[in-house]
Design brief:
Blueprint lengths: L17 E7 L9 E9 L6 E6 L5 E6 L8 E4 L5 E6 L3 E7 L12 H4 L5 E2 H4 L4 H7 L5 H12 L10 H12 L6 H8 L3 H11 L4 H19 L4 H5 L7 H12 L3 H11 L1
Antiparallel strand pairs: 1-2, 2-7, 3-6, 4-5, 4-7, 5-8
Helix pairs in contact: 8-11
GO molecular function: DNA-binding transcription factor activity; sequence-specific DNA binding
Keywords: DNA-binding
InterPro entries: HTH_AraC
Amino acid sequence: MKLVNKFNPLQPEWKKNIQSLQMSKTSPPFQNSIAFVYQFKTKGNINENILFPSIPNGCIDLLFHLDGIQSQCLLVPSPKKRTFLPFSAYSTYFGIRLFPLQKLFPFQLSLKEINSEKAFSLFEVAPYLRPLYELLLQKHTFIEQMQLLECYLKHPRNSQLYSTIVASCINKIIFHHGHLHVKDLEQFTGYSERYLRLLFQKELGIPPKTFLQLVNFQYIINDIVKGDFHIEKHLNENLYYDSSHFYKTFKKFTNMTPGEYRKILVDEV
């Protein structure tokens, strides 16, 4: 999994509802499983909920509510399309964004089951994280929480075991920014589309075609956030036949065009 940490999975609209944000990478031994760790404080009035627009990013977020409300500790999978998640207003969260095929945090549900819902109560899916949560509540700064997490990760639980076939495919997909077809993965691995679909469903909870589109979508989102989006760049690649095919795929994840999505981000600045 040498290339996965080059993938930058974003939720750019979350910033609309955040009054403060801190982010950090973990130390190198954990960077193939964890995209980044973050802490944010939500806007709004206490005892209310606030809706966070979320887009597909292929990752899982573990969210610890640092104001002590266990029911607000969540496991949030990548949504199938842009959706809205309720968070506690005027609250502080500590989050861990996990890459696909992360090996550090086992769950009591399959990824297919996890991907079927918007969110889960964290301790229903990973009850062993309760002691970590109790320790996080005792820390007062993001640096202290990061140090605690790093210490915790040095004593791994039962790690997840994954097929080297899927891991190799993910590396190739990320290297090519998702600009591939499933037939390219067939040629790369020597396995049939049907077998690859079975492996991806088992280990990622989604079929390879969806994962290809999702990775490419996130690279487009990164370009939009950086102000460097040019449709010609993506039409010249291998994934889209024409502009209508490109827009159809983007709308599948957001219900809007790239220009409309960019306007949302600009209006929120």
